[in-house]
Amino acid sequence: MMRITIFNEFVHEKKDDAVKEIYPNGIHTALKEHLEDGEITVNTVTLDSVNDITCELLAETDVMLWWGHLQHGDVPDEVAKRVQNAVLSGMGMIFLHSAHHSKPFKLLMGTPCSLSWREDGDREYVWVCDPSHPIAQGIDRYIKLEHEETYSEPFSIPEPDKLIFIGNYEGGEVFRAGCCYRRGYGKIFYFQPGHESYPTYHNPQIIKVIKNAVHWAYSNYRKEIDCPHIQKIEG
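^ thats the sequence. predicted structure below, dont judge the formating
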């Protein structure tokens, strides 16, 4: 049984009636309902309970999902550092949509993680770059989203270890929409679709990608990276 923790700010859904209509119980609850099955059990945390992200919780989390937007700065630095250390020690991590500007993502990438954006409900095609990759399994050549927030290059992230998806929008913009990284012993996947104003997380193909990513990022190996003094093995 894989143990998943989902962090969601849970701010838009309480402030904006249009968002609340799409995700009445929050993005975290929608993801939990779509992901939980006989192999995956899900715990959720919101900004109101962000200090529940303790070392103990992270030690019991195999893969963490993170969605944030309006209040990245309200996540305590010590919580972000705990998440970074957990990933370095082997916890899988999936950053969704505007989590590109979250504190844990920036710590793990070491770059500004900035991009260009436009919110006008453009159509997006999420193109599969590597159909052989486990995260792309069960997905055809592309996923069509009738409406999404436009993200555009340049995206100031490190070169991905593997690029799985590229997004293309009506305005002609392109964006690295699905990026894989290794940091320490942990695997990281950034996935761009998921603006709160659209029902992206009710799209079966998007959920399929996220579930695939959970399985890909999962590892039962956890070890804190240290710097031990060693002895010669011979002589």
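The beta strands are 2-8, 40-46, 63-67, 92-96, 116-128, 142-152, 162-169, 174-183, 186-191.
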